[in-house]
Amino acid sequence: MFHPDDLTALGLTLKLAAVSTAVLLVLGTPLAWWLAMTRRRVRPLVDALVSLPLVLPPTVLGFYLLLFLGPDGPLGRLMTAAGGRPLAFTFTGLVIGSVIYSLPFVVQPIRDAFSSVGHRPMEAAATLGASPRDRFFSVAVPLARRGFLTAATLGFAHTLGEFGVVLMIGGNIPGKTQVLSIAIYDHVEALDYARAHVLAGTLLLISFTLLLIVNLVVRRQPGVRT
Amino acid sequence: MNGIPDRRIFSAVFFAALISLPGLAHGDQVRVAVAANFVDCLEALAPAFEEATGHQLLLIRGSTGRHFAQIKSGAPFDVFLAADSERPTKLESMGLVVPGSRFTYAEGRLALWIPDAGPEDKRPVAEILEAAEFNYLAIANPRLAPYGLAAKQALENMDLWEDLRPRLVTGQSVGQAWQFVASGNAEAGFVAYPQILAAPALRGRWWKIDPPLHEPILQQAVVLKNAKSPAAGARLLEFLQGSVARLVLIKYGYLIPEN
């Protein structure tokens, strides 16, 4: 049913979504914690920055990334100076793009979950002698698990559907940067509807299943108010 | 304000508005689906066409493959300026074009562009490509864009397609292939020769890649069946065969086909 090239695109897309989600959880958790807990004046500013990818056209991100990652851009220069290559047209470049593109989808659910946990359980744990690190990992994170699950699923699903950014910085290289959405676009333009159908149907099914799982699991978990 | 009657001000404004809107005063809008390589040339021709006929041009740029798919789905275009002869011929056999309108308006030329190459580089193209002193070689998507197909044919004929495949980055049209090279993200690229001629202050070196390394790029035009104004579309095709257009086509690096 799957053409070998399409299977490659599917594998690459899943890998991109998995890697980007992992990176987002690592980077997004401290950011979400800070956003939930801080009383500093810059908080709305940071919040707005994090939310930007929700409203910006992906082409705006793609355009800036192309300049940023390219050989004359800041990161491109840094990479060349360090003996590497600029990151446009690479898998790493796509991960950077996806992390920015899906940032709000991961940070916002975790931030909201931390906010609803609030200061109280943390203060209670502190009076029982828990260290800040201990409090974070054994009180805040478990209480916010629903937020983490939502964040991971939305981040993953949103990255699966990434298109505009990849179109601009990917270069359509099979096995490296040709993701599912780009392959579908090419098939439609080349009027190969059979292959487009297989891929589009697959993506539809995966995305729907992911969202369904989230809804079922989140419903079943008692305890946490949001 | 005293002394100047309101009516005179009104008519002055009215006539000023009328003069500044020639498009509304007469003529039709011609919606042209134009191949990315021909956009610069057509933009250069537009004022002369608009002055001669009173019709306005609206350019919709893209790869010929994309436009073909869109026209098949009933896209609202009047004229299709393709970068090949295959797709206009197909549209004709599907009955989607005005019969007899199809003709070759230009023969396109392919070029290899390497912005970092020095003027002293006198090696032939095959040698340069074989040395592969680049991380990425940009081409247009061979499935969608005739210039991409020609690039693929040239690489195959030089027996370099399989070797260079891992370095290929593919643009949706020859326009995106150009952008990949111009932005410095790809160090080399197959582009349209007219793009090179149209570029202000071009960096590096370029090499023309001519047949028989690839099939001739015969760029054909058709008036589409569901055109709003087939007559205005026909005027554009007629204009493209005239002497004014031919001079500009040659200036932009196209060959004039013998129809």
Quickly list its features.
heterodimer, B: 259 residues, alpha/beta, five-stranded mixed β-sheet, 10 strands
In short:
By secondary structure, chain A is mainly α. Chain A has helices at 4-37, 43-55, 58-69, 74-81, 91-117, 120-127, 132-143, 145-160, 164-169, 180-189, 193-220. Chain B has a five-stranded mixed sheet. A five-stranded mixed sheet of chain B has the order 7-6-8-5-9.
Percent strand of chain A = under 5%
Q: Quick check: average pLDDT of chain B? A: 90
Structural class of chain A: mainly alpha
Radius of gyration of chain B: 22 Å
Mean pLDDT of chain A: 90
- State the order of secondary-structure elements of chain A, H for helix, E for strand: HHHHHHHHHHH
Q: Report the end-to-end length of chain A measured between terminal Cα atoms.
A: 43 Å
Q: What is the 3D shape of chain A? A: globular
What do these coordinates show?
The complex is a heterodimer of chains A (226) and B (259). Chain A is mainly α and 226 residues long. Helix content of chain A is 77%, strand content 0%. Chain A is built from eleven helices and no strands. Chain B is globular.
Q: Helices and strands in order, then pairings?
A:
The complex is a heterodimer of chains A (226) and B (259).
Chain A: H1 4-37, H2 43-55, H3 58-69, H4 74-81, H5 91-117, H6 120-127, H7 132-143, H8 145-160, H9 164-169, H10 180-189, H11 193-220
Helix pairs in contact in A: 1-5, 1-8, 2-5, 3-5, 5-8, 6-7, 8-11, 10-11
Chain B: H1 6-20, H2 22-25, E1 29-35, H3 39-53, E2 56-62, H4 64-72, E3 79-81, H5 86-93, E4 103-108, E5 110-114, H6 125-131, E6 137-140, H7 146-157, H8 161-164, E7 168-171, H9 174-182, E8 188-192, H10 193-198, E9 205-209, E10 217-223, H11 230-240, H12 243-251
Parallel strand pairs in B: 1-2, 1-3, 6-7, 6-8
Antiparallel strand pairs in B: 3-10, 4-10, 5-8, 5-9
Helix pairs in contact in B: 3-12
